[in-house]
Every structure is written in C-alpha cells, then in structure tokens.
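#struct-pred

JT: dropping the chains for the assembly here, can someone run the whole complex?
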Amino acid sequence: MAGNRSLIAVIGDEDSITGLLLAGIGHINEQQRKNFLVVDSKTQVSTIESVFQEFVERRDIAILLINQHIAEKIRPTVDKYQQAFPALLEIPSKDHPYDPSKDSVLKRVQKLAGD
Amino acid sequence: MSGARETPFPTRMALTTTKLRLKGAQTGHSLLAKKRDALTTRFRAILRKVDEAKRKMGRVMQLASFSLAEVTYATGDISYLVQEQAKTATFKVRAKQDNVSGVIIPAFEADRIAGNDFNLTGLGRGGQQVLRSKEVYAKAVETLVELASLQTAFTILDEVIRATNRRVNAIEHVVIPKLDNTIKYIISELDEMDREEFFRLKKVQGKKKRDAAVAEAKRNAEREPQGEPPVAYEMEEESAAGDLLSSKDDDIIF
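RK: done, full complex below.
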C-alpha cells in the first residue's frame, strides 16, 4: 500500500526549510526535482498549489510537511485532501505558532469526536 | 405496501432456503456491527493521541526554531548553504504494516542513514551550534514521523469505519427486510395453495356425493316396480364441513 515511499517533503518558509534540511531530509531525484519548496512573500499561490499537487502525486514521498500559514493560503486544496499517502502534516513556523483550530486534519477529528 | 421482495417459486424448499439466508444475514449483521464498534473504540483512542501529539509537536518545533536562531546568531545565515548542499536525503522513512483490530495500517519509522552529512565547510566557528541544532531538528522530525503515522492510521480507520457502517446499514435496512418480505410472500402463497387444495377437495367430494345420490335414486327407481322398499339414503345432501371428514370415502387416502 505504501509502495516505496521514503522521502519527507517540505513546503515552508526559509527558516523552517533550513532547519529541516539540516536534519537531513533534503533530496534531489534523478529528474533534478527537489523535495522541498522555499516559500517567501513573493511566491505565488499558484506556484504553491502546483508544487503541492506535484508532491502529492509523486510516488516516493511518504510525508508532506507544510507550514501552517502557507497551508492557509491554499486552505481549500488542503481541506479537500483526503488521501492517506503522503501523510499531510501542518507544522508551525517561527512567526506563526501552532494553531490547532486551523489544522484541517484536526478539524475533521473534532467533527468526528462530536459524533 | 409490501416493499421490495424477491420473486422465487413459492415452494417449501424456497422457504427453507430463504430462511437460511435470513439467518446468515442476521449473523453477518451482528458480526459487522461488532467489528465496527471495536474499530470505533480504537479510533477514538487514536484521535486523542493525535490531538496530544499535534500539540506536543507545536512545542517541539518551537525549540528547534530557537536552536536554529542560535546558529544564525553565531554563524550568520546558513540557509543558502544548507539548501545547496541538500542532494541526498539522509533522513528517510520506512513503511511497516501494523494490524489494528483486523485492519492493516501502514506506519512510518524514521530511517537515518549515516551518510556523508554535510561537509559543513564554510561554517567555521559555530560548528558546535550547527551540530546541536541538527540534532534538535532531527529529534523534531522523529516526532513528526510518529505524528504522520498516527495521522495515517486515523485516516484509514476513518474510511474503514465508514465502509463497515454502510454495510451494516445496508444489511439492516435493505437485505433483511427484503428477505423478510420474501418469506412472508412464500408463506402466504403456500397458505393460499393449501386453501385452494382444500376447496378443491370439498368440491370433488360434493360432486361425488351428488353422483352417488343420483346413482342411488336411479337404483331405487328401478327396484320400485319390483316391490322393494327404497333404500334410505342416510347421508345428508348439503353436509357441513365437519361431516366431510367424518364420512368414509375410499378415494381419500389420508
């Protein structure tokens, strides 16, 4: 079911990316595609969207990390995401501490816990 | 409204078969309901864990950020360097299969390859900080990997529970009523056939009696000129239902 997924991909701001790359998750595959995207104030929403789609469709990515404030920019896409793989995780960034009420997975959790 | 039912031939065998199927459906239903309940309990447990883990992750990432800030303070901005150096992941994940009350769920395990971790050239002083930050971040990623496993388990369980629930409801609201109606139909048809049979029997007996009476009357009429008294016809013409059964008729074998 999980196939050969082994990579952790990141869509985040510079600081988050630096730290995570420091931990060793950075990878460039044979097609020169990186598994991370640095998002800053100049990055277009459409770019974020398309990279998100790309990561989601790649078969070697197991986990996709995304800063919460960036997830906010593509919130509808993120909310529609129902696949089990790759696992989508919203992480906080230096300037935006973690807000559980915005997390799309937790929102589903709360909805179900209310059943 | 009789509702949906199947249309078999209304025989006794069909009745037995359908009753067996009903029994099967009821057993299946209770089994599925039990499975669904077991999964739901597990699900709620995971739900709580996910919630906790997410909050913990918030704190862990904060710590990691601080350590990176220290590095930047000591060494300056290393982001460009780090990005350039990312060629092969030394931190990967491995998928393994977990079994949660009968459902196979994949889980992730952190897989650190002791590779050529950055030369980290050009970082000069502050190399200590960098190494320390690296470790803090590695720890953070491990937490994230655990979280991801929990989340996957959660998503998959959610789907399985929904599917099981749908089947339980389908059996309860579609299959069982259908079988019930089929059984009722067969029974009512069998009863109808019995009544028809009974009615037919009555008619036949009635006719036989009338024929016998006619034959008797003829015989009496023939005997009359010869001076014999007419034989009393003992049975009544229009007998009530009970009399039929008490009288003896050779044709009836039961």
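JT: nice. Helices of chain B lie at 12-75, 79-85, 127-223, 241-246. Chain B touches chain A through 57 residues (CB under 8 Å).
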